[in-house]
Amino acid sequence: RAITSLPFNYSYGLSVINSHLLAGASLVLSNKTLMDKDYWQQIRDHQVTSFAGVPYSYDILLKLRFDRIDMPSVKTLTQAGGRLGPIKMGQIQKICNEKGIEFFTMYGQTEATARIAYLAPKDIEAKLGSIGKAIPGGQLWLEDENGEHIDSPGTIGELVYSGPNVSMGYAECKEDLALGDVNRGTLRTGDLARKDDEGYFFIEGRRHRFLKIFGIRVSLDAVEEIATSKGLKCAAHGVDD
């Protein structure tokens, strides 16, 4: 039983809804926020078992003293929508261990229905900072600038994903709706990554200039264009938090 903790129009939030309904599970609909005492009371009253959040959600949890929050029914926490730093990941995992909760960190993109890879709770301590391995039914690999597969551990290349959850493509105009499945089940993520000798992937950067802020993808090029249109000169850069 999940509780609505993310917007429905956000790919990860919608994925939580669809995956629970598909599995025959249930949802608690709440218009409260994590900052409201009533939200946590709803979790207790309705015996919520799973909670989903983006990195910002876990920032709030830590500020609210997550270790002191009473939610005995919760058995699973999941995180996606941007990179959760290794230190915070370790903090959340430690508290979850004490509470008997499984903590799954995930990596995904909207074009692959929000989920591409996950790191199992048992692997977090040993693989801190890793996005883990591909979800069941999917495949992950690395390619160099020439599109050749990279097999050697530690070598950085573009992360490429293949699976049934990859979208058909984008329609920029009505004629594009007739194009069919443009992606053909494969998504070039635009993220640079490396793989260790046990097959766990680590994100090292982005080919294109995007940040994930509050789970929303922001183009640094677009930020610069907006500034230029207002007569300003600027260079945009930053990190996901």
List keywords for this structure.
globular, five-stranded antiparallel sheet, 25% strand, alpha+beta, 241 residues
Strand arrangement, largest sheet? 3-4-5-6-7
Radius of gyration, in angstroms, nearest whole number: 19 Å
Task: Give the low-pLDDT segments.
Answer: none
Biggest sheet descriptor? 5 strands, mixed
Summarize the structure.
By secondary structure, this protein is of the alpha+beta class. The chain contains five helices and 14 strands. 22% of the residues lie in helices and 25% in strands.
Secondary structure blueprint with pairings:
Layout: E1 2-3, H1 11-22, E2 27-28, H2 37-45, E3 50-53, H3 55-63, E4 76-79, H4 86-99, E5 102-107, E6 117-119, E7 133-134, E8 139-143, E9 149-150, E10 157-162, E11 186-195, E12 201-206, E13 210-213, E14 216-219, H5 220-229
Parallel strand pairs: 1-2, 3-4, 4-5
Antiparallel strand pairs: 5-6, 6-7, 8-9, 8-10, 10-11, 11-12, 13-14
